[in-house]
User: Fold these one by one.
Assistant:
Number 1:
Amino acid sequence: MDSQYLLMKKPFELSRLLQGLSRPVRVMLVVWVVTMISLPILRYFWGGMGERGGIVAGVGLQAVTVVFILYHAWGLWRTVWTAVSVTGLAWGTEAIGSSTGFPFGAYHYTDILQPQVMHVPLLIPLAWLMMLPPAWAVAERLTGVKRGLAFIVVSALAMTAWDLFLDPQMVTWGLWVWENPGGYFGIPWSNYLGWLLASALITVIVRPSRLPAFPLLLIYTITWGLETIALFVFWGLPGPALIGFLGMGSLVGLAWLRQREE
């Protein structure tokens, strides 16, 4: 297809795809983005309390938005199964990880995020739920398949790329502590091997297919943009901002290129 035609067609295709989203999904997307943009303001005026409130609201709204998207594509029972499976497996992985050091390395959560079960904040499994389905959408776009080894590997890579932003930021905020800091801006390399393993395992167990790729890819892309700006401009972490921008951004660019070609 002629490249000039693709460039002319893209804005109209994007507009059509956005209009194809259900109204609840569009509303949730807007509310989530506004909440995330407001986080530096909340921290500036209300300090740690505002920061924690913004984190809880942002994670909760993004997770709910993802669930809305899955529900409109899959229906109730499959969405419930996926949400319960992802959050349950993520909590179990984090509980084992923080207790034994496997698969991430030796770390523990502080008492800042509450409530906690077995010393794991309940917000953490929701964070997995809010980002793993978007990572699946990236994998589906890049591999062209809905299951199989390539899909699993790229899903794990897309999920782990997000942690290039996340871990340095959360450690700086004191939400969790590594017993042997080092490697990547104070984060041990074993953490990223653990993310790859855990993401792949959950993907294998849940076996996602027929994903609503466009809205989930949109969430992945917005997260990439917000994280880049936040770490570079507001949180004083230019190194993770740059590497996360390149790592997660390369997947974003390739995925949107495939989206445009279809």
Number 2:
Amino acid sequence: MLKITLNKNRLRNKILITLAALFCVGFSFISYVGPRMIIEINNEVYKSHVEANVTIASPENYGLNSESIIFESKDGLKLNALLIKTDSVNQKGTIILVHGIRSYKEHFIPVSKRITDKGFNAVLIDLRAHGQSEGKYCTFGNKEKQDISCLIDDLNTLPNLSQKYIIWGQSLGAAVSLQALSIDDRIKVGIIESTFSDYRQIVHDYSKNTVSFAPGFVVDYFIWLSELMGDFKADETVPSEAAKNVHQAVLMVHGEKDRRINIAYGRLNYENLASQKKEFLAYPEANHLNVWKVGGQAFFDKVFNFIEENIN
């Protein structure tokens, strides 16, 4: 009887040790993967995606002449941008285009033709960790807003380039743009498309939509780890708070069928703007990715008219 009891105890201990080991391995795995799914961009999977797609849209394909700009961030990263100048003798301004997460500057080459035809220069930036820029982690505007200021510093050294700056961002790029407007009054106008109002909130939203079984406290743990990895603070990455310091003219755009970023966040950003000149443009049939398609030519007419009315 004693021998049977001892054997049962040994078996139970082995099971407990095995379960504890599995828990530790699983916890270590999700601690490694979780925050990287949020902020790690620059990896081999992303690089192969970029390499497979950037050649599809090149300035030459659209009859555009471009020059590469390499500038340095405040923390020493080499960041990449393209300058496409208008052929117009009288430049109306310089529009900085800021892409969404896991995208790249070439996304904006087609629209650059519209921009230069309207008499504006176009500057297409690869955000840190994206495209040809250095870096590994995205900080959702926390550091990227400073990168925009560094880009403008560099642009100001170029001859024969209008220093009337406009910033036009989509999704993550719009969050970056809104935060950049809050710290740099050299930017005169903002076009803000389909963006979030709070880093912490949008991580919870995306986690709910993609991994519905992840408890809130686990997501908060991932956010904390992402702060450590990316060296930034979630509570300082809040576009709706940044909006309170934005006094420049802003056109805010959002699709009412956006399932990735709720239009309510766009409205909160809009309400918080300190701007005297601001407009909110909502498209009932647009989702997160097709505002330009749904809005059509009327959308672009609205954007350029808004810029021209407020650039001086």
